[in-house]
Design a protein that fits this description.
- With about 400 residues, the chain is mainly beta.
- Helix content is about 10%, strand content about 45%.
- A hairpin with a 2-residue loop joins strand 4 and strand 5.
């Protein structure tokens, strides 16, 4: 479930504010890497369907999302605490195509375990300006520009992120699907090749996206894809795709299905849960970590998917979702032909309570507790009653399976 992501922020134009180093120079120069061990293993937390890691930034400890689909971004609060010098501004696009302006700075050192990265260009963003961002993201995002200097292995079964200069320094794993890994320059996003039948395309491996596959809708229109939708799994609905740096996306049609025949270098993956997205590229997401240990081998230009001995439980699909929008809980996604839709719920309904639990939004601590509960604890499939506010009055809606 994409709740609050900064994935796929595209650099469009960077303006310089100082003369000794321009943003373009900061983006183009190599990040120096200092390794104090051949291999460094970092424990991570898994929450909100995302990877959270500890890092030291200019000697100060912080809590960050590890997002391979984003550049590195530090919070405005952390930037002020570091007295970070701003060298310019960037105008880019967020995961939903909205224009976003961020300041640009250069961090002297980012330390992950036994590895220190020097002179890292970063964006600066005020996550507190988002409806949920300040509740979910404390110090920022560790992003893709750090990836190109070595090999990275992500193992959700052990909740570890392992860094090495090359993949040969990492422990051997069972063979599995793999693909070419393309690096098209800053911010060094991990781009892979995939195919569905005769349809061939490139995709972004994006740990900021919590699902398995988000298929670019133009790719999904091809006959190769249409013929590989598992019968009986196609579902449509309405709602917001998520909140990104430019805020919430507008409500739009939603489509999800089980898809077979997705392949990497001729190796067919098991059936994947897929949803459509209106913008390129297709995303391979963190949901695949329930099935594979994934290794990004930048020196050799390969991405490898090593199967777990026992797949981890996948996040169950949800017929509807509630999140904070404009400081109040709102029904943000709803699929057709479900108990929630049959009961008369509508996207945009303000939600006052769930099964008798009042959704508090004041003070700030209560607001964040509500946002986190809705995002990481609530199981929509088990909900029996919702109290909503619509047309100036409160209504209690009972969900049943009678239809």
């Amino acid at each position: 479930m994409q709740l609050c992501t900064l994935s796929a922020i595209t650099v469009i134009a960077a303006a310089s504010l100082v003369q000794d180093v321009t943003p373009q120079e900061a983006f183009q120069r190599d990040i120096r890497i200092e390794r104090h061990a051949e291999m460094s293993e970092i424990a991570f937390d898994w929450r909100l369907d995302k990877i959270f890691i500890a890092a030291e930034v200019n000697g100060q400890s912080g809590d960050f999302i590890f997002d391979t689909g984003s550049p590195t971004i530090v919070s405005r609060t952390l930037a002020d605490r570091l007295d970070l010098r701003i060298i310019g501004q960037n105008t880019g696009r967020d995961a939903h195509g909205a224009d976003v302006v961020m300041d640009i700075g250069v961090i002297d050192t980012i330390r992950l375990g036994d590895v220190v990265f020097h002179d890292v260009p970063v964006m600066v963003f005020d996550f507190d300006a988002l409806d949920q961002g300040g509740c979910f993201i404390e110090d920022g995002v560790i992003g893709a520009e750090l990836l190109s200097g070595g090999a990275w292995r992500i193992d959700l079964s052990r909740q570890t992120l392992t860094l090495a200069a090359n993949a040969e320094a990492l422990p051997a794993l069972p063979a599995g699907p793999e693909s070419a890994l393309h690096d098209f320059g800053y911010p060094h996003l991990p781009i892979l090749d995939y195919a569905i039948g005769e349809m061939r395309d490139k995709a972004l491996f994006d740990t900021g996206f919590g699902g398995e596959l988000a298929l670019f809708e133009r790719a999904a229109e091809t006959q190769d894809v249409q013929h590989r939708i598992v019968p009986g799994t196609l579902e449509i609905g309405q709602g917001r795709a998520g909140e990104s740096a430019g805020g919430w996306s507008a409500p739009e049609p939603l489509t999800r299905a089980r898809l077979e025949g997705v392949s990497l270098d001729g190796h067919t993956l098991p059936r994947l849960s897929a949803n459509l997205r209106p913008l390129a590229p297709t995303l391979f997401g963190a949901g695949l970590l329930n099935t594979y240990v994934i290794t990004l081998d930048y020196p050799r230009g390969r991405i490898r998917f090593s199967p777990l001995a026992e797949p981890l439980p996948a996040h169950p699909k949800q017929d509807f979702s509630i999140a904070l929008v404009d400081d109040h809980p709102e029904l943000v996604r709803l699929y057709d032909n479900t108990p929630a839709s049959h009961a008369g719920l509508e996207v945009g309904d303000a939600v006052l309570s769930v099964d008798g639990r009042r959704l508090e939004t004041e003070p700030q601590q209560a607001r964040c507790e509500t946002a986190l509960w809705l995002a990481d604890t609530l199981d929509a499939q088990s909900v029996q009653t919702l109290t909503i506010w619509r047309d100036g009055e409160a209504r209690t809606i009972t969900l049943t399976d009678d239809h």
